[in-house]
Specification:
The structure is a homodimer of 375-residue chains. The relative contact order of chain A is 0.11. The longest helix of chain A has 16 residues. Helix content of chain A is 45%, strand content 12%. The termini of chain A are close together. About 2% of the residues of chain A have low confidence. The first copy, chain A, is α/β, with parallel strands linked by helices and 375 residues long.
Amino acid sequence: MIVDEAGRAAWAYLARVAEPPSAPVIDLVEALGVLDAAHAIRKRSVPSGHDAALLATESRADVDRSRADLDDAQRIGARLVTPDDDEWPGYALLSLATADTAARGGVPLALWVRGQMRLDDLTLASVALVGSRAASSYGEHVTATLASGLCSNGFAIVSGGAFGVDGVAHRAALGSAGQTVAVMACGIDRDYPAAHTQLLREIARVGAVISEYPPGTTAAKHRFLTRNRLVAALSGATVVVEAGRRSGAANTAAWARKLGRPLGAVPGPVTSATSVGCHRMIADQQAALVYDVDGVIALVRPEGNGDAPGGRGRPTDGLSDEQKRVHDAIPGRGAVTLAEIAVSSGLDLPAVRSALAALDVAGLVAADGGGWCLA
Amino acid sequence: MIVDEAGRAAWAYLARVAEPPSAPVIDLVEALGVLDAAHAIRKRSVPSGHDAALLATESRADVDRSRADLDDAQRIGARLVTPDDDEWPGYALLSLATADTAARGGVPLALWVRGQMRLDDLTLASVALVGSRAASSYGEHVTATLASGLCSNGFAIVSGGAFGVDGVAHRAALGSAGQTVAVMACGIDRDYPAAHTQLLREIARVGAVISEYPPGTTAAKHRFLTRNRLVAALSGATVVVEAGRRSGAANTAAWARKLGRPLGAVPGPVTSATSVGCHRMIADQQAALVYDVDGVIALVRPEGNGDAPGGRGRPTDGLSDEQKRVHDAIPGRGAVTLAEIAVSSGLDLPAVRSALAALDVAGLVAADGGGWCLA
């Protein structure tokens, strides 16, 4: 789908007026379309049932920085990727819609992306390597070995751009001519940490630096936790390389589990404080023990599926039962009406509508005239 | 039960005439009693159905070294412990009778024990710490930490008396005034390895050096594998501290699993060759990851059962369903007949006989006049 300038400006406006992720704003876009949704927020007048969108945008609705944000992004080689864009990684992000999403969960409204690569390509076969900022030299060594091995096998490395495990993972990917994605807890124009300015530039050159926060947004504690869900969602598997007793990596790990994504952890000396978190996850059977590249690949492709690039299985894997039934009820060619889907799927109309909305967000179906077709 | 001199000599004779473990010889003892069984083997004349006992003893039956073996043992402070002795750890060894025992499995006929402690006391709350002979300094450190911590919690340390993890485990137990048991693949009078002569003496002083092989027997490869099953059987849990790709510890670990005993493995650096075996066991979910003393204790007492010394749960835990039914059918006081047990348990006579034989070996029931009572 081609997104016109007005449409993209509307997405950019909405991406700033509520702190992401904002389910009420997404609901409003689904109900009205992005242009009318932006208009409604600006005018402080929404259809009944959408008051939550007003509440969520109360403090920022008056400031429209959409033009400036898009310009700022363009200046550093970045763009706003929306669910209306072909490269939107809907199959990966869908899990956020179907998971039991707590306070900081939910699908992102749109993603700011710095770099030239298509986001769907980058995240088709990808593994998140995460871990302690205060990595040990052992942790750094293992991270580098896994990252370069995974890149050699065609996987992109997703991480958070931080010191320690994150930074080593990105660097090792770059060093082995692989692809890597840094998911930021601040705007894609804020080089955080500052010492990673050059690293983030390199990541953008061969992969992507992405964020759901508008340009200029500063990193804040709650944003790291919110960001972690995207690291997990955009990766076929998450591997915790080193984690202390209270590592932020445990939060990313919890997201991987919540999203139904494979989770691995690398063991280390039981005498090392930076492996305590990994050992606990393995001992509690929350994470599988992985000790080499093959083990990580086996996590992502459990059936030893050799169909490279592979990575995340079928796009419909994360669907709920009802969503699968609705998806199956739409033929491979041509469009069908809501009523026809209800008959084929055996679901009532509200259930079909709800499933279609989720499938639409995921980029799996598209409205076509008065009906629906597979996207 | 008191075992008289003739009885013990008969056990000693039988313990040498067949390579242990010898199910046919045990069957013969169960059928005839130990005196008549020894007599039958010597005379090469057994009841029909017991020809296998003749075959198993063909090459050694003519040599009766029972007196010399018992004398040799006594000279070094050792004795022969038989299923007729009160200290026979039948509850632990029973698992060998009920497990699907391959070529080298089976209950031992009797055990040579060097040391003053009662064998049943020593093995009531015990953990096997096993691992690579070529342990790393990391492995040695972890072994010592676990062994002394377990001893402080009242557990005896069972191991194989070898170099590496075994030796460190025994030494750490001695160093923390704990109890420890070395299960040998040779006679209890052969200090193997020779460099452990002093260590084995110390083990015997506070714990026990035990073997099912008669005095003078030399260590041989197949005896190590046979011995490993006793290490696992005599321990409430087995923990592999360090193991390379092809460690003998994997065999002990396999026995623990076969016997239904908890199995733990300690992780280490994924860069260490001596942790590869541990990581595989954990990754394949054959072993639980353990990283500290509390984790090992939780293995042995999964319900957080605080009833120290505890360790192996109830003596009847390893019983088959039929054995449990027969055990339950015998009242707490007084004896009942075979027929009465059959009625109470709802099993037919052959099934009751078979279960009683196993319970008898385990020291859980005893023949009493014409009937059976709880031991």
